[in-house]
């Protein structure tokens, strides 16, 4: 256990880096990529791309993001459990649990549903059930971004405060 105490600052630095990279990827996908891809025909003259084709492109991006999200989920799980056992922290592990639930909802529930609907063709996504699921996935994605941002801020402030205690 003493070995973990010595490595804890390095784990925290990597953990914060991974959360920061994931937040950047979420922002890049949701804020930059999605509007560009879904408005591609307005941006590029004479580009014939349907909403269905744009959705397939976005899904391709999100399936790649899902790998990063699931990797982060593993780190959240281990880091927050160890942190809770070592320091007795309560708020950050709760945010970590919320982030885990949101990650797995997005990667293991909504993304497979959207992939399956897209594999059935354009008619499968042109209904109220798909629209409702897609809207829910957008809300989950935004909530995930907020929970990860709060987790990052709390962990960074904890690191700053623990560094200042020694001086």
Give your account of this protein's structure.
- This protein has 167 residues and is mainly alpha-helical.
- It has five helices and no strands.
- The longest helix has 38 residues, at 128-165.
Which characteristics define this entry?
mainly alpha, 5 helices, 87% helix, elongated
Q: Largest sheet, described in full?
A: none
Categorize the overall geometry: elongated
Give the low-pLDDT segments.
none
Radius of gyration: 19 Å
Helix content: over 70%
Element order, helices and strands?
HHHHH
User: How confident overall, as mean pLDDT?
Assistant: 90
Give the percentage of residues in beta strands.
under 5%
- Count of strand segments: 0
State the end-to-end distance: 25 Å
Task: Please give the count of helices.
Answer: 5
Which structural class do you get from the secondary structure elements? mainly alpha
Outline the fold blueprint.
Elements (H helix, E strand, L loop, with lengths): L1 H37 L1 H4 L7 H37 L3 H29 L8 H38 L2
Helix pairs in contact: 1-3, 1-5, 3-4, 4-5
Can you summarize this structure?
This protein has 167 residues and is mostly helical. Helix content is 87%, strand content 0%. The radius of gyration is 19 Å and the shape is elongated.
């Amino acid at each position: 256990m003493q070995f973990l105490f010595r490595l804890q600052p390095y784990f925290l630095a990597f953990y914060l880096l991974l959360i920061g990279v994931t937040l950047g990827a979420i922002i890049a996908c949701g804020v930059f990529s999605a509007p560009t891809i879904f408005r591609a025909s307005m941006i590029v003259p004479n580009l014939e791309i349907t909403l269905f084709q744009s959705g397939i492109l976005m899904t391709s991006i999100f399936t790649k993001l899902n790998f990063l999200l699931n990797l982060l989920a593993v780190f959240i799980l281990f880091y927050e459990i160890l942190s809770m056992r070592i320091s007795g922290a309560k708020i950050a592990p709760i945010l970590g649990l919320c982030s885990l639930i949101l990650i797995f909802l997005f990667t293991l529930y909504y993304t497979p549903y959207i992939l399956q609907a897209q594999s059935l063709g354009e008619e499968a996504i042109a209904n109220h059930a798909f629209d409702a699921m897609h809207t829910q996935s957008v809300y989950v994605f935004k909530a995930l971004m907020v929970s990860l941002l709060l987790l990052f801020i709390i962990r960074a402030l904890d690191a700053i405060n623990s560094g200042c205690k020694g001086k």
